[in-house]
Amino acid sequence: MIEVKDLCFTYPTGVEALKGITLTIDDGEFLAIMGQNGAGKTTLVKHFNGLLKPTKGEVVVDGVTTGEVSVAQLARKVGFVFQNPDHQLFCETVEEEVAFALRNFGFEENAIKKRVDWALNLLDITQYRQTSPFMLSGGERKRVALASVLAWDPQVVILDEPTIGQDHQQKEKLRQFIVQLNAQKKTVIVVTHDVEFVAECNPRVVLMTEGKILAEGPAEEILTNQKLVAQASIVPPQITQIFLGLSDFGLPTNVIDVHEARRILLDILEGAS
Amino acid sequence: MSMFEGFRFRRVSSVIHRLDPRVKFFFVCVLFVTAILFSKLPPLILLFFVPLPFVLAAGVQREWIRSMRGALFFAVIIFLFNFVFTYFSTQYPQLPSASLLERSLAMTLRFLVLVESFSVFFLTTSPDHLGLALEQSHVPYEFCFAFTTAVRFVPVLADEAQTIMDAQKARGLELERGNFLKRVRNYIPILIPLIVGAIRRSLELAEAMESRAWGASEKRTNLYVLKLKNADYLLAFGSVLMLIFAVYVWRYVPVPTLITLLRL
Amino acid sequence: MVLTGPSGCGKTTLCRCFNGLIPLFYGGKLEGEVVVAGCKVVEHSIYELARHVGLVFQNPENQLFALSVEKDVAFGLENLAVPRDEMRKRVDWALQITGIEDLSERPPHELSGGQQQRVAIACVLAMQPDVMILDEPTSFLDPVGAQKIFEVINELNKELGITVILVEHRLDLASKYANHVIVMDEGKVVLDGEPRGVFNSEKARLIGVGVPKATRLYQILGENGIRLGRVPVTSEEAASLLREVLKRD
Fold first, then answer.
1. What chains are in contact with A, requiring at least 3 Cβ pairs below 8 Å?
2. Average pLDDT rounded to a whole number, residues B50-63
């Protein structure tokens, strides 16, 4: 469980990035942290694995106060997949890349081999085992980065803007992957401004703006609230926009999913005839 | 590292900042040459005070003090080296004389005058102003471009280095632990992504440059132009006078040492 | 025109063929012919083509090299040896059209991604090309930033008559401005036509193109026998078409 208590954070340059955040994330939750660029989303999640330490307030991960332990200790439980895989890749082979963190955490050789096999298989990159990560395409490098984080089986997985530059099918695969992780009782936290992606996943949403939490709740409540959405400078999902345009027909205004939309419309049209 | 702090430009405007960089550079060169000419303390002490009014007029005292403090470290090393070496090669085993002390101090002060003048130059000249001066001084455009682009990307690369460190720390990399050798090895996961990233970035930059007609003309035009104003002419004139005066004194006037002056 | 397709289909490679980066900068073998604005690409140098074709790249950071915005916008004009007075006029004009006059003396590092991308567009615009190609320009931007960019691009097309080729994945935001869509897959053009037809086609679904949700809704309603008047591409269109159907009943 991650507890954030009145967290304030100011960068050394003087920029006040977080102005009092209070939040609780239970084990096994799927959470999307949303807001425009500069709202403080990435700054917030960097506190969960100790990369940033609170200026005021505290963050407690599984009973451990983050200010008192090192990043390496917290990273054992909290895996962080950065936006750009090229910020991580440096090894000669994909295998070494995936094993890197395991070696840092002191796993023994047998365990390392098993876990590397497992992670490569999970992300469908076993065939690239001996390839240099620099030779792979953008999408493949993202999978290597993801495999290298999942290899040590952290309880919490944080994905920072995972949908940037991805095409529709890649996003769909990612969505299914997150569902899989969740099914394994892992806590998944996604930092994103991709509203359509969040609408398809329907997680719990925390909406941030200017260093504060504007609102939180199920996606269908938050993303369909016009006032909140405007305040956070994001755009409502297309399906929501369509239904908002038809609100005078008495249609519900909290729809974000295209299949739910179909169901409602069919009900109305079939009920009428 | 703090010696370099003095060379970082601050976003401020003053009369000194608005002076033409080429004239400022000429002035700094004159200071440089004058410092080399004299090896006795009194003229060097005078020379040390010459850039000070410029520092105050530009409002960059704090940065200037920081760079001088950093330079002090090297100054001490230079003094010790000079003093010890000269002593052992000339006066040993007698006691060191006052004139030896003075001469070593003079060498050290010369170094400080050099740092001081260049620091004032860089503190009061913005990189783009400097790049423009280089262009107009007929330095080949490739070099000017390389210079300003490098300066433009320094903060970007610094941020990227921080992000890479965060990403690797999040995979359990510990940069503060271990003996010297291990620590150096631990920087490989930082350096490689940084270098690869820099290469990728250069490729993207090259694409953008080519797409914006790089190399289209033999002679490029420029959006800005540096024009010499009254203040520039004044400084240039003053520098030339100073140079003539310095050469004259060096040639014809016997310069006393500090010891001689103190005895008087 | 919107150019889309799955990752690796060749859209980025195709863009670079239009302004000469392929084959002149990248080498390799080029077969067939590319003619842009009346010029055969292989017969001209990249800087000659730059007068007619502008290319805006995905990463805003790596297109800006000067220490102030207006110097960056002037870069292309300086290369083309445009006289200073003319240059000043064009720079001010480009800054005004992209709505960034107040940023003219700022260094690029202080700007947001969206602002940087507008500067990049101004840089290309100043050279007054006939064709402007934008390769996933909104990848790194949030939805509001992306919308602003699309509005600027739309203005360039509608007000200035510049031919715009936009490579995008985010079709829900981009398609409302397009009047022509091309879909590529595995190095070939597989769909070419106006947006409604392309988004609604079976082939688009097979390839896995992320069509706008409005079109998707039209398709799945159609599966249940509900026919809307036209294929919608934007949420406003879908709402008004649904309104007609709901009114009927």
1. B, C
2. 87
